[in-house]
Amino acid sequence: MTGHILKSARELFFEHGFDGASADMIAERARISKRTLYSRFGSKARVFEAVILDEIATQLRALEPTVDDKLDITSRLQAIADVLLEWLLTPRVASMERAVIAQAVRFPALAANIHDFGFQRAVQWVASILAHASAKGELTLSDPVFAAEQFVTLVVVAPMRRSALGLAPAAYDPAAQDRVRRGIELFIAGCRTQR
Questions:
Q1: Quick check: 37 and 5 in contact, CB under 8 A?
Q2: 166 dihedral zone (left: phi>0; alpha: psi -120 to 50; beta)
C-alpha cells in the first residue's frame, strides 16, 4: 500500500508542486482516507520527503554504473556522466528538482537528505573512478573525493539545474552532450596539472 500511496502522491506533487497538491487530493488519488495517509506518514511534508527519496533510491539502484576499468579516464568519466544525465535531464526529474528547490528553505532536513542520498552517492561513484585513475597515474589527485564533488557539480548538477530552471531543454540532447564533453575535458585538464 505504501508504494501505491507514493505513486499517487508523486504524480500530484510533480503536476502541482508541494503547495498545489493537498493531502485530500493525495488521499483521493490513492483511494484511501486522509486519516490513513496521516497515520502512515504523519504529515504532507513527510509524504513529499518519502516521494522524493523513493524516486532517487529507485533510480539510483537502476542506474548503478559499472564502468570498464580498461577504458581511459575520459571514457570512464563520460560513461558515468551519460548514465546520470540520461536520467536527470528528463521532464520528470526537472519537475522534481523544481519542487525540491521550492521547498528547500521550508524543509531543510529534506534538502539535506536529498544532498546526502543523491549527490553523495554520485560523488562516491566518481571518486572510485578518480582514485583508480590516480593510482594508475592517469591523473594527479591528492583528494579524489573533493575532485569527485567538483566533477559532479560541474558536469552533472549544472546541466540539471539549467534544465529545472527552464534555461535548457529537459533532455540529454546533442547540445547538452557537447557541454558535458567539454566540461569533462576541462576537469581532466585541471586534474593533470594539479600539484
A1: yes
A2: left
In degrees, to the nearest 5, what angle opens at C-alpha 13 toward C-alphas 38 and 50? Answer: 50
Give pLDDT tens digits for 19-63: 888 999 999 999 999 999 999 999 888 898 888 888 877 777 766
At residue 90, the 3 state secondary structure works out as coil
Please report the DSSP string for 15-52 in residue order. Answer: HHHHHHS-HHHHHHHHTS-HHHHHHHHSSHHHHHHHHH
105 SS3 class: coil
pLDDT recorded at residue 184: 95
Largest pairwise CA distance in the chain: 61
- Which residue's C-alpha cell is 488521499? 27
- pLDDT for residue 67: 66
Terminus-to-terminus CA distance in the chain, angstroms?
55
Regions of the chain short of the pLDDT cut 70 = 62-67, 193-195
CA distance 12 to 127: 36
Select from 110, 93, 105 the least CA-distant residue to 14: 93
The alpha-carbon radius of gyration of the chain (Å, integer) is: 19
Q: What is the pLDDT of residue 114?
A: 76
C-alpha cell at 92: 520528470
Query: Looking at residue 63, what is its pLDDT?
Result: 66
- Which cell numbers hold the place of 150? 567538483
